[in-house]
Amino acid sequence: YQNAIMLLPGRMPCSSWAMPTASVGAPPARLRIELSPMFFAVCASCSGVTTKPSWLIAVAALDRKGNRASYSNFGATVDVAAPGGDTAASAYDGILSTLNAGTTTQGTENYVFYQGTSMATPHVAGLVALMLSRSPSLSPDQVESTLKANVRAIPGICSGGCGAGLVDAGKTLAAL
C-alpha cells in the first residue's frame, strides 16, 4: 500500500508508510510491536487487493466533477471516496498542496496543485483524526462504519465501485 496513514494507541498520526500488497494480511512487522485494537490504516493505492484486512480503510479518488479519477483504485474493497483532483485538463482542477521550494535545503513555502490517491487519502485521514478528537473511544470498526454511514452520494460516474460514497466531514462529525 502507498500513502497509508496509521494511528497507534496514543492516537498520534505516524508517518506514511508503504506496504506491498503481498503483505496485506497483517501490518508490517516494524508496526506490530505496539499495536492494539485501536490500530487502523487509511490506504489509497490498493490496486490488486481482492480481500481487505479489517484494520484498513481503502479510499478511491474523485476528480473535480465527482467522477472516479482515471488513476484511482476501485472495486469491492474500496470503502469510501474523497477528492483527489485531476490536473490533466487544468492544474486548477487539482488539490492545492503545501510544499517547500527548496531542492536540497529548506526554501520558501509555496503551494502547488496535485492529483492522486495521495491527495484523497489525507482527506479521509484528517476526518478520522477529527472523529477521534471528538470521540476518542471509537474502535476501528466504529470509525469505518461511521464514515460509511455518513457519506454523500457520488455526484459523477464511478464505474467499478467507489465504496459507500463521498466522505462528508460535517455530517460525519455531527453523527458523533
How would you describe what is shown here?
It is a single chain. With 176 residues, the chain is α/β, with parallel strands linked by helices. Helix content is 22%, strand content 17%. A four-stranded mixed β-sheet has the order 1-2-3-4. Strands 5-6 form a two-stranded antiparallel ribbon. It is globular, with a radius of gyration of 16 Å. Residues 1-25 and 27-39 have low confidence and may be disordered.
Quick overview of this protein structure:
The protein has 176 residues and is α/β, with parallel strands linked by helices.
Silhouette: globular
Low-pLDDT runs of 5+ residues are 1-25, 27-39
**Which structural class matches the secondary elements?**
alpha/beta
* Helical stretch tally: 4
Order of helices and strands: EHEEEEEHHH
Biggest sheet overview: 4 strands, mixed
Average predicted confidence as pLDDT: 77
Core attributes:
disordered N terminus; 6 strands; two-stranded antiparallel sheet; 4 helices; alpha/beta; 4-stranded mixed sheet; 176 residues
Question: How are the secondary structure elements laid out?
Answer:
Layout: E1 5-7, H1 29-32, E2 40-43, E3 56-62, E4 80-83, E5 95-100, E6 109-114, H2 117-134, H3 140-149, H4 169-174
